Amino acid sequence: MRFLSRLSEDLQGASSHDPAARGNTENFLAYSGLHAIWIHRLTHRLWQNPQTRFPARLLSQFGRFLTGIEIHPGATIGRRFFIDHGMGVVIGETAEIGDDVMIYHGVTLGGRSLAKTKRHPTIGDRVVIGAGAKVLGPITIGADSAIGANAVVVKDAPEGSIITGIPAKNRPRTADELAPAVDPAEYIDPAMWI
Fold first, then answer.
1. How much is the pLDDT for 13?
2. What is the CA radius of gyration of the chain?
């Protein structure tokens, strides 16, 4: 039952985040971001057991082949995560992603170190990450933040930040920018903050 409720949540998340979504059947069959998340959930469960880490990595690589999205089985991902378009997304082993996060194509949640420690970002709840953004290192992005397209983020950002530029700088979101888009006509593209 838990599997079906999560599946339903994912499909609803896709519909609410993508104005091009035309229904659950099409989303289920055609959204590579959803397929990558579902494969990750399986590989992450396998990763928890040291005896099944090799099969987890193989299945993860097969998912990458199918979707163009690379999510390491060790990454921790919250509920209602959505990847729009997806191609070129990379999420590293020690990345932690909160609930209701949305990312676009070409996003990297990567490391800056070869040390076997926490080396990937922690992303808070309800964060939106624009296309091509690179979030690197063991940094924390606070909840309700938005990262602009092509930003290179290497420093922590507090809750409610707008993060843009190379290297990225942050500023507080205004009250208008914090209000969720409830109608596709009210959608705010994170690239607008560039």
1. 72
2. 16
